[in-house]
Amino acid sequence: MTAAEVLRAERAALCDTLEEQGPDAPTLCEGWTTADLAAHLVARERRPDAGPGLIVGGAFARHTERVMNDQKAKGYDWMIARLRSGPPFPMNVGPGALVNVNENWIHHEDVRRANGHDPRPLDPEVDATFWKLLRMAGFGLRKVPVGVEAVTPDGRHRVLHKGTPSVTIAGDAPEIAFYCSGRRDAAVVELTGPDDAVAALRRSSLGI
Q1: Nearest 5 degrees, angle CA 24-CA 26-CA 31?
Q2: Looking at the structure, do residues 54 and 74 belong to the same domain, yes or no?
Q3: What is the C-alpha separation between 141 and 52, in angstroms, rounded?
Q4: Is the domain of 176 the same as that of 137?
């Protein structure tokens, strides 16, 4: 499967879960309900002007909040329908689709795991997609003062962040990405390495 095909399948599953949980369910994104998360996903794809506020605070963040509130005002069903219609070009093909798999899968798990669901069985196509995405995991680890390496159960190995000493994150590729995105308590991974290095990784700010 191409990244675009993986994205279509994951987007459909995410929308199904959002419908099932309703607009007021909790998520792993602190302070956000499922309605907030849906608004974020729509704004991210349809309102590029809201993007800087996801990273920069101040007036940018306030603008992003206003955009999200505009999306929520249109209704939960409207937002899900908008998401079901698929992302616009170039977020639905090639590298754009690849990055969007990461966004959709992680936020899908934000909803599922906050509402008592266990991790899904590993999908080989999702796993292969996330192994490619882990090349970019260094962005989420830029504030980590130690090296970080990824190892999967089938023996694949990738350096995610250079540094000494180094910590190994062992698990399936999607779970490693989930950890690097900041979901350290929800991700199914194992950390190994010198105690002080592991402690440093646990203390570090992860994600954007």
Answers
A1: 100
A2: yes
A3: 19
A4: yes
Could you tell me which of 187, 186, 142 has the C-alpha nearest to residue 169?
Answer: 187
The whole-angstrom separation of Cα 97 and Cα 85 is 14
The secondary element (H helix, E strand) that includes residue 132 is helix 124-133
Q: Are residues 58 and 128 in the same domain?
A: no
Domain that holds residue 37: 3-114
Beta partners for 166? 147
Q: Is the dihedral of CA 74, 75, 78, 80 positive or negative?
A: positive
Q: Which residues make Cβ contacts (< 8 Å) with residue 5, sequence separation at least 6? A: 125
Q: Are 104 and 10 in contact (CB under 8 A)?
A: yes
* Residues 14, 96 within the same domain: yes
pLDDT tens-digit series, residues 156-186: 999 999 999 999 999 999 999 999 999 999 9
0.70 exceeded by pTM = yes
